[in-house]
Amino acid sequence: MEEKKAAGAGISATRRAAVLMGFGILVAVAFAASVMLGSVRIPLEEIWQSLAGIGAGTHQQIIMNIRLPRTVVGALVGVNLALSGAILQAVMKNPLADPHIIGISSGAGLAGITMMLVFPGHEYLITPVAFVGAMSAAIVIYILAWKNGIRPVRIILAGVAVSAFLGAGISAMLIFYSDKVHGALMFMAGGLAARSWPHVYIILPYAIGGAILAMLGSKHLNILQLGDEIAKGLGLNVELTRVVMTALAALLAASAVSVVGLLGFVGLIVPHATRLLIGSDYRFLLPGAALLGAAVVMGSDTFARTMFAPTELPVGILMAVLGAPFFLFLLRREL
User: Which of 49, 18, 44 is nearest to 31 (CA)?
Assistant: First the structure.
């Protein structure tokens, strides 16, 4: 009974089903818009024909080799970042937690940029190395924020400090390897330009595996919301759960960072919006956040690359414009 109360069981199953269905429709609309819109507008019927393997020509080449893989990468990145943010908010009991804000993405970014610049022939190692960087940053933040327990303000302050330190490391790498700075700058901005099928194959296993593990851990995340003492009374190993779920959040964030760079605020905005509509029961919050995250990234990328056409704006810049005011609003409300 306590677990259901803490998870927001007052929201009806009908409403949850309707919201999840609405998110699914948003994903479909964002997917169609992403494939249709661009310098060449492609009719919807041609998209269906290309997906079915019917027909050929320039439009099919654009769809299959340029827009479709970019759209799929955007969807998977949105899923991973949204799940990562939702998990971190539960583990750290902090509604402001986000892999970008608290420094986890910076840890992954520094490791990823180091691999790109120092070991350019080993791109296949970017994701595992980025995971090590993300997990290391998470551990340091957790240690710095611990003082007779964890408080949200301390996590934010520790995360800002760690993020600033890691950002200095990234800047140093850009200076030392200035001849390769263009690719690294695009990595820092966060964007989906030139993403192709190999990038889909890189992130897909992490998205599938991470989503499955997150759903399996949803019950534990619900119990964590009850407080440490009650959770221990229910037989949950609190610290082990925090470590395992933080590692999962770090892996999800690292896989996204390794493919699109430092794309921020998705893990902050999406879980909050989902929680307002669907409640705090992580059995429903996680799939809802995954769907909304996919729709937000695909839709934002479509808007960013068509708004100033033919110049393409990295989607990370648009997310920062949207996310920074949202973060300040939450900060004032929580404090």
Answer: 44
The angle subtended at Cα 112 by Cα 130 and Cα 96, nearest 5°, is 60
Residue 331: HSE in the Cβ half-sphere, 13 Å Cα cutoff: 13
The two structure tokens encoding residue 65: 């080799």
Q: Are 33 and 302 in contact (CB under 8 A)?
A: yes
**150 by DSSP, 3-state: which?**
strand
- Which pLDDT does position 1 carry in this prediction? 39
pTM of the model: 0.87
DSSP-assigned states of every residue in 4-44: HHHTTTTS-HHHHHHHHHHHHHHHHHHHHHHHH-SSS---H
* Structural contact between residues 204 and 76, judged by C-beta atoms closer than 8 angstroms: yes
Q: Give, rounded to a whole angstrom, the gap between the first and last alpha carbons of the chain.
A: 29
> For residue 228, what are its two tokens?
């440490």
**Spatial distance between the Cα atoms of 268 and 82, rounded to a whole number of angstroms:** 8
Model pLDDT, residue 149? 64
